[in-house]
Amino acid sequence: MSDVMMKALQVQNESLICQVERLGPENERVRKLLTEFDNRHNADTARIADLERQLAEAQTHIQQLTAAGDAMDGWTSDAHEGASIAPSRWSEASRSALHALSRETQT
Fold first, then answer.
1. CB 79 within 8 A of CB 72
2. Residue 97: count of CB within 10 angstroms of its CB
3. What global pTM score does this model have?
4. Neighbours of 93 (CB within 10 A)
5. How confident is the model over 52-61, as pLDDT tens digits?
6. How far is CA 24 from each of CA 14, 19, 34, 44, 76, rounded to the nearest angstrom?
7. Domain count, the chain
8. pLDDT digits (tens, 9 = 90+) for 5-34
């Protein structure tokens, strides 16, 4: 190999080394951005899971309130007809809905 070719390869090699050295901090910056993105993504995922759990609890609570409301409608109807509103007339579903609702409100 001629001296000219050797010198050209050495210059090219030095140029590549300089480019790699300049990219080092840029790579670190990109690595930090990716880590920050991952952290945010994990936090968002956890927040979504928490919101989904809260939504499920709210839906359960709404179902309990609806069942209690339906039971109240039945009691009101019975009362208007002059019937007794004794607990023995409550349906099992109404009793369990009210029981679950009272547990919810006590906690």
1. no
2. 21
3. 0.48
4. 11
5. 999 999 999 8
6. 15, 9, 15, 30, 77
7. 1
8. 888 888 888 888 888 888 888 888 888 999
